[in-house]
Design a protein that fits this description.
The complex is a heterodimer.
Chain A: H1 19-39, H2 41-62, H3 72-104, H4 107-114, H5 121-148, H6 156-181, H7 187-196, H8 198-203, H9 219-224, H10 226-238, H11 249-252, H12 254-279
Helix pairs in contact in A: 1-2, 1-5, 2-3, 2-5, 3-5, 3-6, 3-7, 3-10, 5-6, 6-10, 6-12, 10-12
Chain B: E1 3-14, E2 17-28, E3 32-36, H1 43-50, E4 58-63, E5 66-67, H2 72-78, E6 79-82, H3 94-104, H4 109-122, H5 138-149, E7 156-160, H6 168-183, E8 187-192, H7 195-201, E9 204-209, E10 212-217, H8 219-225, E11 230-235, H9 241-248, E12 257-259, E13 264-268, H10 272-285, E14 290-296, H11 300-308
Parallel strand pairs in B: 3-8, 3-9, 6-7, 7-8
Antiparallel strand pairs in B: 1-2, 1-4, 4-5, 9-10, 11-13, 11-14, 12-13
Classes of the chains: A mainly alpha, B alpha/beta.
The structure holds adenosine-5'-triphosphate (ATP) and magnesium ion.
Residues 14, 17, 19, 37, 39-45, 84, 193 of chain B line the site of adenosine-5'-triphosphate.
Chain lengths: 282, 331
């Protein structure tokens, strides 16, 4: 290499940032995370094994005790799979919380910050990679579902809308995880803090049991819980059993509500997370 | 002369800790400034402010003619940073790391790959290019880290303790690369705890302690602050000390002094090697047995000791100013 070509000749100003950079920078960063998944395939394996285990446990062990109003054991499995898909989307958030905390405390973050890249791309790239992993897990889970008797009864368009809804919601909710991750002192704390809110939000929902089986005081929370809306919307779109409590708004417009929640979360937490990222360690 | 780096009155507090207490720094284009100071003196904090990673509480700074607080993109476009801790992705290979950073510098895919290959070659990493960083030795990581900071062909390079934890051979290699970069016109701001390193590489040196600049100048200027050359004569018998001092007094530029404990006579001299010959001849004529004699130039260790009242952590004893320097464990 010619040594004389090392430094720039003059002190040129940086090329003006272009909107397209956010996209190309995000792709570069997400590629980094995807490469990492291929280097540590165990992480993907365990991200998969957990929901598959839940499917098998509920389908064959607990399922018999839960009545969803129609179809007996097969009916429950049809009810269960959209719930598990929603649960998977939620639990993936814990992963990004830990990932972001770990990354933010490492030297590589200094490297990113000293490059003329779009700072937000560090987060959009990470969340995009997490979305791709989510899509893969959702696909494999769907196949597992088909194997235990779950079926898509409505047309292609409805099913496609259901998967789009999962993807959009999954992407939006990872920003909550990213935002939390940026406030954690280290990855041990992030490991617990990243999960602690996910448990109540995920399980105080209709993912495993119909709302009617729950105490009255809890029902409004469960009905309005974004996770319930997501699962109910998916059941409607797939044509799976949807035992309803009554005629409340979230039970009438679950699809609209699921998308609404997703955009709301994105609108709030994406800017918050980018701001937290820019001011961290300042 | 244009200034590549200019900082005025930088202050920074972390909670109650005053990390910087009003720092002024100027670095001329194409030169090397060595920032020297013990642990916690504020070296890294200065680098982080100049590299736009953190903001100073007060004061202003420009790098490559751009304000670090208000023109961050322009600054980032002309700088390279090799931090105190390796800033590469553990799970990626050396090549993947460099290509990633090239892409984030908005090089095309082709140019990023080409630049990565060039740098891997230049830093002797071609053989390990497609192995994960996890399997790299400390020295290889350090080289990759430096390579990564050169992706954008920076005008101004920040090197925060670039050779800490390296063995002497790797350190020499690193020095050679830095010297090459400077000869190509790169301006370098280098922090170090190795006085020898500052002596070797830096045109000018700034000595920090507790967030204050306590001295600045060229290495020679700093050394002359603590006095010029001197001859140290260790005699065999304590009884010879007084006589030795008397005999050689005329040769020195100032009166000789005696250290009884070490059986040493110290003689400040100006005429270096000629003086040492004269001393040896004179003592020989008078049958005084010399156990040891040496011409001693002041080192930056002496400078440091006289300025701060304590030795840098990396220096085990004052008697071994060169060589035998303890390796500081990387934290
Ligand atoms: N993020 C931070 N939070 C709190 N205190 C900090 C932070 N960064 C630096 N400090 C403090 O500021 C002071 C200067 O630190 P700095 O890292 O600049 O020192 P240094 O000269 O680079 O030391 P070393 O040789 O150990 O690398 C130290 O007292 C340090 O504890
Ligand atoms: Mg430091």
């Amino acid at each position: 290499m010619s040594l004389t070509t090392q430094a720039k000749k003059t002190q040129e100003t940086a090329p003006r940032p272009r909107m397209g950079w956010l996209i190309t920078d995000s792709i570069s960063v997400s590629r980094r995370h995807l490469l990492k998944i291929t280097r540590v395939p165990e992480s993907l394996f365990f991200a998969l094994i957990q929901p598959v285990m839940f499917v098998l446990l509920f389908a064959f062990i607990f399922g018999g005790a839960i009545d969803v109003g129609s179809g007996g054991a097969t009916g429950y499995r049809e009810y269960l799979i959209p719930g598990i898909l929603a649960q998977t989307v939620m639990f993936a958030v814990a992963g990004i919380t830990v990932g972001i905390t770990e990354d933010a405390s490492k030297g590589i973050m200094d490297r990113f910050r000293s490059l003329p890249m779009r700072p937000g791309a560090v987060l959009t790239g990470h969340t995009l990679a997490s979305l791709l992993q989510n899509i893969l897990v959702i696909s494999i889970l769907s196949i597992t579902g088909l194997a235990v008797g779950w079926r898509i009864h409505n047309g292609f368009a409805d099913a496609a809308l259901a998967y789009l809804m999962f993807a959009v919601f999954a992407y939006a909710i990872t920003w909550v995880g990213a935002w939390i991750g940026l406030h954690m002192p280290n990855s041990e704390v992030a490991g617990t803090a990243g999960l602690v809110w996910i448990f109540p939000v995920t399980f105080a929902s209709n993912i495993f049991t119909p709302v009617a089986t729950m105490p009255g005081w809890l029902q409004p929370f469960v009905l309005w819980n974004p996770v319930s809306c997501l699962a109910l919307a998916a059941r409607q779109l797939f044509g799976n059993p949807t035992p309803l409590l009554g005629d409340s708004f979230p039970e009438r417009y679950p699809v609209e509500l699921a998308f609404g929640y997703a955009f709301l979360l994105l609108a709030i937490f994406a800017p918050l997370a980018v701001r937290a990222f820019k001011t961290r360690n300042k | 002369m244009t200034l590549a780096i200019k900082a005025t009155g930088l202050t920074k507090k972390f909670g109650d800790v005053v990390a910087l207490n009003g720092i002024d720094i100027e670095v001329e284009e194409g030169t090397v400034l060595g920032l020297l100071g013990p642990n916690g003196s504020g070296k890294t904090t200065i680098v982080r402010i100049l590299a736009t990673l953190i903001q100073a509480d007060s004061g202003s700074a420009s790098v490559g003619g751009f304000n670090v607080a208000t023109q961050q993109d322009d600054v980032r476009n002309v700088i390279g940073l090799t931090g105190q801790y390796a800033a590469v992705d553990e799970y990626l290979t050396g090549r993947e790391n460099l290509e990633l950073f090239g892409r984030l510098f908005h090089l095309s895919k082709f140019d990023a790959a080409k630049r990565a290959a060039e740098l891997l070659d230049r830093f002797d990493l071609s053989d390990a290019a497609d192995r994960g960083i996890k399997g790299y030795s400390g020295g290889m990581r350090r080289r990759l880290d430096l390579a990564a900071s050169l992706i954008g062909r920076p005008n101004v390079l920040f090197l925060d303790e670039p050779t800490t934890g390296l063995d002497p051979r790797s350190r020499q290699g690193m020095w050679k690369v830095i010297e090459e970069l400077v000869s190509e016109g790169t301006t370098v701001l280098l922090t170090t705890q190795y006085l020898e390193e500052a002596d070797q590489l830096a045109n000018r040196i700034v000595v920090l302690d507790h967030g204050n600049v306590i001295a600045k100048g060229t290495s020679n200027e700093l050394k002359s602050q603590v006095g010029g050359d001197r001859i140290e004569i260790v005699v065999d018998r304590v009884s010879d000390l007084a006589k030795t001092a008397e005999l050689i007094n005329g040769i020195g530029s100032a009166p000789a002094t005696i250290e009884e404990v070490t059986k040493t006579v110290l003689l400040p001299v100006s005429g270096g090697s000629k003086a040492i010959v004269d001393v040896v001849r004179k003592l020989d004529e008078n049958n005084i047995v010399i156990a040891d004699i040496a011409l001693r130039r002041p080192t930056l260790d002496d400078v440091f000791l006289s300025l701060t009242g304590h030795i840098t952590e990396a220096t085990p004893t004052l008697d071994t100013p060169k060589g035998r320097r303890g390796r500081k464990a990387r934290r």
